[in-house]
Write a structure and sequence with these properties.
Layout: E1 18-22, E2 25-29, E3 32-34, E4 40-42, E5 46-51, E6 68-71, E7 82-85, E8 91-95, E9 108-113, E10 118-123, E11 138-141, E12 149-153, E13 164-168, E14 176-180, E15 191-195, E16 202-206, E17 217-219
Antiparallel strand pairs: 1-2, 2-5, 3-4, 5-6, 7-8, 8-9, 9-10, 11-12, 12-13, 13-14, 15-16, 16-17
């Protein structure tokens, strides 16, 4: 990246990476590194996390020396994908983000237990939806409201399944998901957030269309 001091020139951009805040930790992984010459390469298969209670500079790039990390054991570490979490905020479920994929979709996801920093593999009931890198998708979670629901939709790959994945971990021992297709637009690069409005809240999606639209999509 041009314009940076020599001591910071090794820092990498994380195009289409994914991140989530769980309690007082910021977790992130995946993405692509764009070089000065315009070439793009995959980043390393590592999950990083930053203790937000620690002291660190906010006016420059953060040094990797203050980050914690653990190697991702499987293939879910390159693209954007999405992070889901449980009600207790102790487990991170990794959706999409595959470095390699085929036509076979899976009903399992890689999970990271934040309390013990151990990786596991979880089977999700409801169907086989996990595949692809899901770059430029939109995701949102209701974790802080205690509903145990997360959502992700869209993405850059034209062969992504249409619809929106609704991930339900209200029962931690038997998480489920389903693909909702009614009224879900094919978003690419949108921003989506959950808002506490009404009985169950709403999802608000901004952007993500190929053409200019004056409206903001709201899902109930």
């Amino acid at each position: 990246m041009s314009g940076l001091p020599a001591s910071l020139s090794h820092e990498k951009s994380r195009l289409t990476g994914t991140a989530i805040i769980v309690n007082d930790q910021l977790y992130f992984e995946g993405g692509l590194h764009t070089f000065d010459e315009g070439n793009i390469a995959s980043l390393e298969p590592e999950l990083f996390w930053l203790d937000l209670n620690a002291s660190f500079p906010v006016d420059t790039i953060i040094s990797e020396s203050i980050l914690h990390s653990d190697r991702v054991p499987g293939l879910q570490w390159q693209g954007q994908g999405a992070f889901f979490t449980d009600i207790d905020l102790t487990t991170i479920y990794s959706f999409g983000g595959f470095n390699e994929w085929d036509d076979q979709f899976q009903s399992t996801v890689e999970t990271f237990i934040t309390t013990s920093q151990i990786w596991a593999n979880s089977t999700i009931g409801g169907g086989a939806f996990n595949n692809r890198d899901r770059s430029f998708s939109a995701s949102a979670t209701t974790a802080t409201s205690g509903l145990g629901l997360s959502f992700t939709s869209g993405g850059f790959n034209p062969d992504n399944p249409k619809g929106m994945i609704r991930f339900d971990v209200s029962s931690p021992i038997s998480p489920t998901w389903r693909n909702e297709t009614k009224g879900v637009p094919p978003l690419v690069g949108a921003t989506m957030q959950y808002a506490r409005f009404g009985d169950q809240g709403v999802l608000i999606a901004v952007g993500g269309y190929k053409d200019v639209r004056p409206d903001v999509r709201i899902f109930k």
